[in-house]
Structure formats: structure tokens, C-alpha cells
Amino acid sequence: MTPIPNRPVYLDNQATTPCDPRVVAAMLPFFTERFGNPHSAEHAMGRDADAAVEDARAKVAALIGADVREVVFTSGATESNNIAIKGAARFAAGLGDPRRRVVTAATEHKCVLESVADLGAEGFEPVVLPVRPDGRLDPDVLRAALATPALLVSVMAVNNETGVIQDIAALAAIARAAGALFHTDAAQAAGKIPLDVGPMGVDLLSLSGHKLYGPKGVGALYVRRRPRVRLAPLFSGGGQERGLRSGTLPAPLLVGLGEACRLAALEMARDNARIAGLRDALFARLAEALPGLALNGSAEHRIAGNLNLTFPVAHAMALMRAAPDLCVSTGSACSSAEVEPSYVLRALGLDEARARRTLRIGIGRFTSAADIEFAAKALAEAHTSVAHARIEA
After folding, report:
1. Active-site residue, selected from the candidate residues 19, 111, 261, 334
2. Which residue, 118, 187, 266, 313, is most buried by CB atoms nearer than 10 A?
3. Which residues contact 327 (CB under 8 A, 6 or more apart)?
4. Is 261 part of the annotated catalytic residue set?
5. Backbone conformation region of residue 76, classed left if phi is above 0, alpha if psi is from -120 to 50, else beta
């Protein structure tokens, strides 16, 4: 079986998305004739770049329902998450706030878990909450954790492995009632589900360009202005981005991020309807071919393009080797040559054996029906081949 046409079939859109050609077209002039430094306000080229940056800021703000003054540009969601979590905790501590508790969930992205853990070395109290088997955080568990006064709660909007959507508005309300700030990593949510920071009740929100068909190396952090959220910057410099993120802004990348956000706002509903149809077709084909196939995480509360599947017999790595023209992933963390079972899946209650038989499949804007047909056949045939090989061995 060969991929279509003369390329691997890409179904790993939670890892990264291809840059939309319209985004590339919007960026190109800023790599060539419109190359000015957006901080060079004393001449026309600098002012042109600055105007483009501010237009991009407005487009990012529009996607999440924010004021343009609440959008801080960063290098991506990892940096945004670090600024939000460490910045909020350190600023509060610098004012003499006695609270030390920082709360998150066991299924968060590593950059959130590590940021919270890092604060432990500074005298803060990291608290990592379990999730239910469907991948969602129980509001009562959060409420109990906040019986001890906390500075900050950080819960991701959409999980990067399972695609599970958290009830952010409900969780943020609990945090607010307890006097804690609420941050959400929305890297996997932006452009895939509607986001509106006002009704959501969040204080801080992170997003990343390359997760919504924009360029890599750029992202943003929403920082609520009223009432104002104060953060300590991670590093020193020229004071750009209201002093929160110093450094020359990469105008081409920001233009790309803005265009990606504009397209997402326009096309999200249509994209989701088509992508959900492709996802359901793939799952139906695989479930029919492979009895015992299991879907991980909530079926109801998940983004349109995600399937996290535990296969009946074959290990995920063996499946990927048997289907080399299909790009999917395990979602596992790699340490040297050793592939460890996903901590996210273990948090959902999967044992090591099931976790090792699990693949993450991410369907996106540019996935075709032919891609889905290829994937269904490739995975079913690979599973049969691997299972037979195990029996013969």
C-alpha cells in the first residue's frame, strides 16, 4: 500500500499543523521588502512593521475575546506557560503574599508540570490533582484542594494526547471563589473550540502558532487587565511587551500568527464539522476491523480531530514500524532510546500494557477522505501483521 500522492499521510496534527499557504503568503513580504524592526518607530520601515504587529495582536485578541492590550507575544505556549505560572507566583511572593500553593492536574503538558515543580524549589507548594478515567478534572477535587489558600490554578483547556476538553469556565469559577488566579494552556484549544476569556473567567491563557496552522516559534499569552493580573518577567531586556517579554518582536512570525487566528475565527465551525466526520469514519472502520479497539478519554468532551486509541494486541511502536507511510504518534515521552508509557494515559487509569498499545491520531484542516481511507487500511493491516508475527514467535 502506498500513500497518496507520493507522500506520507500525516495524522499527527496535535504535534504540529502544517502552515496554511495563506499564512505563508501573509508572512513572506516581512521576510523580504517589509523587513523593518517593529521597535524602530523613528522611520517608515519600522512604523510599517509595528503596524503589522499591532494588526496581528488585534487578530489574536479577537480569536479569544480579549482586549488588544491583554495580548503579550512570546515564542510559543511553553514560554507563555512559564511566564504565567512562574511569573504569577513570583510576583505575589515579592509582595509578601503568604500563600504558597500552586495547583495543576496530572494530565497537563510537561511544561506546565515542570513549571509548577520548579516552584517547589523556591518555597512554593506544588499540588498535582488526579483526573477521572474520562480525563476530566472533577470540580469537587479542585474545590477540596483550594480549601488551603492557593495562588494559582493551571488546567489545560484541551489535552494534547487525548483531545479531552475541560470545563474551564466551571473550574475557573471555583478558583475565583477561592481567591486564586486561573491559568489555562489553550495551545490545543485555540482554533479548534470557541474561546472567550470573559465568560470563561480566566486570568491567563496561553496559545501557540504552530498548533493552529501558523508558524513555529511564536505564541501569545493573554494577561487580564481588569482587575489587573501582575506577573514577574522571566528575563531582563529592553522592556518590550509591557516589560513581560523583552526582545525584538519577530514581525514575520507575528503576522503569520495573526493570519492563522483570523482564518481560525472564520473557518473553525466548518473545519470542525468536516474533521469530525473524518474522525468518526476512521474510528468506525478501525472498530469494525479490530474488535476490542478502545477509545481513551471522554467521547463527548473532545475536540473534533483527536482519536486516542488502544489497540487489541499490537504495541504502538510496532504498528508505526509496520505502517511507515503513516504519520501518527504514541504521545509517549522518550528518554534516550527507551520509550516510556504516556503519563497522561497512566493518569486515566491505563496500565502499562494498554498504554504501550496506544496511538494518538490527529486529523486536521488538510486531511482528506483519501488520507482516512489509507490510514484505516494501513493500521488494520499493520495490526494483523504484528499480531500474526507475535503468534508465530
Report:
1. 334
2. 187
3. 8, 9, 10, 11, 12
4. no
5. left
Spans of the chain below 70 pLDDT: 1-6, 332-339, 390-393
Please measure the distance between the N-terminal and C-terminal CA atoms of the chain and give it in whole angstroms.
Answer: 25
C-alpha cell at 2: 502506498
Contact in structure between 65 and 224 (CB atoms under 8 Å): no
* pTM higher than 0.90: yes
CATH superfamily, domain 9-19+268-392, is Aspartate Aminotransferase, domain 1 (3.90.1150.10)
Cα(267)–Cα(263) distance, integer angstroms? 6
Dump pLDDT digits (tens) for 92-151.
999 999 999 999 999 999 999 999 999 999 999 999 999 999 999 999 999 999 999 999
Cell readout for 106 is 496530572
- Which residue's entry shows cell 473557518? 267
Q: Which of 145, 144, 168 is nearest to 156 (CA)?
A: 168
The chain-wide mean pLDDT, for the chain, equals: 95
Dist CA 74 CA 210 (whole Å): 13
Answer whether 138's CB lies under 8 Å from 146's CB: no
Q: What is the pLDDT of residues 17-57, one digit of tens each?
A: 999 999 999 999 999 999 999 999 999 999 999 999 999 99
Asked if 153 contacts 146 with a C-beta cutoff of 8 angstroms, the reply is: yes
CATH of 21-262, one of 3.40.50.720, 3.40.640.10, 3.30.70.100, 3.40.1400.10: 3.40.640.10
Question: At a CB cut-off of 8 Å and minimum separation 6, what does 292 contact?
Answer: 312
Residue spans of the domains in the chain: they are 9-19+268-392, 21-262
**Contact criterion met (CB below 8 Å) for 204 and 222:** yes
Please compute, for residue 179, the number of CA atoms within 13 A of its CA located in the half-sphere on the CB side.
11
- Please, are residues 361 and 306 in contact by the beta-carbon 8 Å criterion? yes
